[in-house]
Task: inverse folding
């Protein structure tokens, strides 16, 4: 396929397939009367999707308690470490 604004350049292609089938099969699966569900020929299994964040490097307990809780715990630990460091340095200098 080409376009008048792009002479000599291929802009797309069309693939057509046809099948000769017995009349009973053709009447059982008519075409040309609107769209049918796309998963009829071939039938594909449903896609398994999960809304949960799953990564091999993240332990399940982290996912179970939530990222907000993890951030809060890390913040508290960092504050405690800073306080301990300040106290230890304060006693060490006197």
Result:
């Amino acid at each position: 396929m080409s376009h008048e604004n792009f002479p000599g350049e291929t802009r797309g292609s069309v693939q057509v397939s046809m099948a000769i089938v017995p009349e009973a099969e053709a009447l059982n699966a008519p075409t040309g009367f609107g769209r049918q569900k796309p998963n009829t020929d071939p039938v594909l299994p449903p896609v398994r999707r999960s809304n949960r964040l799953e990564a091999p490097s993240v332990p399940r307990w982290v996912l179970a308690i939530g990222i907000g809780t993890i951030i809060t715990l890390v913040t508290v630990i960092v504050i405690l470490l800073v306080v301990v460091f300040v106290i230890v340095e304060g006693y060490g200098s006197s």
User: Anything to note?
Assistant: Residues 66-94 form one domain.
